[in-house]
Amino acid sequence: MYLNKAFVYGNLTRDPEVRALPTGAQVTSFAVATTRSWKNKDGQKQEDTQYHNCVAFGPLAKIIGQYLKKGRGIFVEGRIQTRSWDAQDGTKKYRTEIVVENFQFGPGGPAGSGPASGNSAPVTAEAPQSAPAEQLDTIQYPEEDINPDDIPF
After folding, report:
1. What does the alpha-carbon distance between residue 122 and residue 78 come to, in Å, rounded to a whole number?
2. Is 1 contained in some domain?
3. Angle at Cα 61 formed by Cα 10 and Cα 113, nearest 5°?
4. Average pLDDT over residues 96-118
5. What is the pTM (predicted TM-score) of this model?
């Protein structure tokens, strides 16, 4: 069995760049910086920052491009992919990136309303189907009395 999965939590290094493919689908590219801190054998604090190129397609691309800006935190889940192309000078260029399959906004939520915004639900490639307001008003819930003594644990 093979597994290609990446999980990255960090800050955007630049504003997401939103483009459209020839098919009309949206694609957003951005980079996420992650920093690792440790103390060396002399007790001095050391840091190492890594930059991860990310790309999102479709509804995820639209949401990321609309709500995220440079410096915002983001948790990205996806697969690692390397693509190549021939540069104008005749050399072959390579770029390794994370193809976003799922993400969560970092602290502050999508609108930057502060750390207590409570937005922790993941955003996935499947667009959620929301019911019209009139259907929500007609939901009938059964009336049951739950007796705590009936609960088996």
Report:
1. 13
2. no
3. 55
4. 71
5. 0.68
